Amino acid sequence: MNFRSKRAALPQFQMTAMMDVVFLLLCFFVTTSVYSQWELGLEMKLPAAQSGRASTAYSKTIVLNVAQDGSVVLMQRRIDGAALADELKRLAARDPDCVVSVRADAGTEYGKVLAVVDACVAAGLTNASFATTAAAPAPTALPPPPDLEEAE
Question: Which of 4, 6, 39, 131 could be 103's S-S partner, Cβ–Cβ 3.0 to 4.6 Å?
Answer without folding.
Answer: 131
